[in-house]
Every structure is written in C-alpha cells, then in structure tokens.
Amino acid sequence: MRRKLVVGNWKMNGNRAANASLLAGIVAGIGAANAANAANASCAVCAPAPYLAQCQETLAGGAVAWGAQDVSAQPGGAFTGEVSAAMLADFSCAYVIVGHSERRAYHGESSELVAKKAVAALDAGMTPIVCVGETLAEREAGQTGAVVSGQLGAVLDLVGERVAQIVVAYEPVWAIGTGKTATPAMAQEVHAQLRAQLMAKNAVAAETVQILYGGSMKPDNALELMAQPDIDGGLIGGAALKASDFLAILHAAN
Ligand code: PEP
C-alpha cells in the first residue's frame, strides 16, 4: 500500500513571523496526534526560497519535511535570480515542486524544461513533485488525457529508470485557487490514466509512485478525494496557509 503524502504549497505568501506561527501550529498539531494516526501519511511544506532556512531551523529532526517550489535546471553559474538544486539540498530540502501550472503559464516553462528540472532535483538527492494538469479550455475540448500524458511523458523520457523516485501531482488548472474541485470520480479517472502511463514505463515503480491531487483540496473534500484508489495525497495551496486546515487534511490522509 502506498503511503499518503500531503504537501503544502505556500506559493509567494508568508513572512518570518507568519511562517513561525504556521509552522508552530503544524508541529504542535502533529505532536498531539497519536502515533497510529500519523502512521499512514507523511507531510511537507514547500516554502518560498528565502524561508527554507527558517523551515530547516524549525522542522529539522521532526515529522514535517520541507521543500522548494521551483529549481533551476542549471547546475550553477551565471544565471541571475536562479536557485540551483545543490543550493536547495544545502538546506536539506526533501522535495521540490516542478512544473506547477503557475510556472508553466507565467514563466513559459515547457514540459522539456520541467523534465530537466526534475532530473536536476533527482541528481541532488531530492524528490521532484511533477505537476501536470489541463486548462478548462483543454478539458472542454476533450484534451485532458493528451495534455497530462504529454506533460508526464516528457519527464518520464528524461528520468529513465529513476521513475520510482518521483512524485506526480495532478492539478487541473481550472481547480487551482478557484474553489472548484474535480469530483473524486473525475480526479480518479485522470490519476488512473497517469498510473497506466507510469505502468507502461516501469510496472514495479508504478505501484509505488505517489500521485497527489491538487486544486482547491480542503478539509471538507479531502477524505473523499483521498479515498480514491489512485489518489495518494494532496498538493495543497490556500488551505496550507492555515495550520488547522492543513492538519485536518493530513488527518483525512490517515
Ligand atoms: C496549488 O497551487 O498547488 C494548489 C493546489 O492551490 P489551491 O489548493 O489553492 O487550489
């Protein structure tokens, strides 16, 4: 059985004081949960790069992992403003989100670039959380399957035998930050398709790869979504900024 994974994507939110209180709330809530309750799920927060040191200082040695929201595909050098995978690893990041739809839309990131970022993360010992998802226009045009398989396929081509070391996140663009959630059946249909694509690449690995759902996951819909056979957790935006909501989703994952 795959372990559930709940990851908070803080996006460009927070400051030292707000992060301290959010992290303290999460840590206290997890500490209060009994051991059996925490047995089936892991969790992480993906913070803006300047606050990764704060995450490391606050979370090291505990049950909450941390990660980044993007990484450069380049190893280092004259790339002003970029952050390399080695730098993220230097702050003990366990995860890095790659290919979030906001990066694809606002920064023109192609699936080929996303694949290179996933490889950079793997090379530095981190787990890339590879985001895929269709826009509303693509869904309405019946292109969901083709879009997500193209996005995942580019990454699978480049990661080769390391497919077991990635996490996939299905995030329908129309559901992100909108309050509109894919129904559990709609999400499961896409997750099953992604699992089949992983299966075609490596049947053994496909059984272990966690496929998260993201897009307005909240305490009141998390349980039903994560009860689907191929939904292995959540990538949480808005609800990850409130400790009680994040903890409730983590609770649903258990
Ligand atoms: C996200 O940005 O990854 C996300 C899922 O956001 P939200 O939960 O706010 O829809």
Automatic annotation (TrEMBL):
Its main location: cytoplasm. Substrate binds at residues 9-11, 177, 216, 237-238. Pfam families: TIM. GO terms for cellular component: cytosol. It comes from the Bacteria. Involved in the gluconeogenesis. Catalyzes stereospecifically the conversion of dihydroxyacetone phosphate (DHAP) to D-glyceraldehyde-3-phosphate (G3P). Belongs to the triosephosphate isomerase family. This is Triosephosphate isomerase. It comes from Massilia atriviolacea. The gene is tpiA.
